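May I ask for whichever protein you like with its backbone structure tokens?
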Amino acid sequence: TCDLSGKDAGTVMAKKLAMATAALGTEFEEELLVVSGEGLPPPPAQFSSGRCPMALAAERALERAAGEGLRLLVAILGPGRGNIARLAAALEGHPDWKAVARRTQISLYSGSFNIRGTTRKDARALAEMVEAAGCVLEDSAHFVWTRQDVLPELRDMATLMPDMATMLEKRNPYLLAAWREFGMEFYAHLIHPMHKKLWARGEALTDEERAVFDAASALYHAGDVEGYCRSILQHESIFGKVTHFKMGTIRSLATGVLNGPLCDCLVFLTRWVEKHAPHLITFGNTGTWDVDFEKGFTGIKEEGGLCRALQPMLVDQPPREAARTLADAVLDTLSAAVACGDGRTASAPPKARKCLAKICDLVCRRQPAPSRGR
């Protein structure tokens, strides 16, 4: 889903598409379906015409699953915005749904942003899909899955996989360049010099710190977000006053470490750990699915919820090496999925050569991140 009036404003959406194309090739981009949601601007023009995207997605998935006898995974990784209900209706109305339903698994990542952007109609439709499939909804919630970050490396992708950029530099430098360009715009507004949540509660800069910070702020306004973050990071007392959850953003933009929420990997990691390291995960938190739409939280209660559900989580007191195991799972899988040659344009496979022009158009014309509010 996209929101061109909010998180995907400016050139963020274009840079997301560049990342996807760099990672998976133009064939993927040509098949990609993009939707917006109720009350939001329509998606970019190339995705706004023709059939209902959810109907097309249902048709593609069911015809392939039915024709090849495959299991179907419905993975929900973003806010519903009315689209889950549309997908459920399209699945139910397709002639192959009855044959495929009973070999369907439904998983979602239930972050606060996603749940607050999911309608009650979406949630009811999701519950009905679970009932029709005869499965248990698998709800991956970050703080439940990680047992409230029981291992410090599990806070985000930067702490778990600080070597991500090194791997991509060798395996797919186009994706690395596109990711960095995206991150510089997407995260820059979160650490704007005047952001009301930049500083931790109760913290105030001294006169000396204010002078240093004002000089750093001038870099931000000149378009040098990296220099701005580096100036803050290098001044220990100033960096120590930054709100805790913004420290990672400043550190990653200052050092070039790729940043991103670990929660986006949880559905994949659940599958991987269940198969390759089952001693690290438990599925004992089962019952019925409970949703607080206002606060954006989900949970499991014994009865009375919307449908049968479980929330996977790491085992109690996981071994220290668990973090490295999870990091390697993501890095090894991503490395194999996005590899495009030795980095030289002439030797890269067709998918990389085809998308290079699009990426260069974004990467080579560096511009200051547009203001998208504070």
The chain has two domains: 11-152+263-352, 157-259.
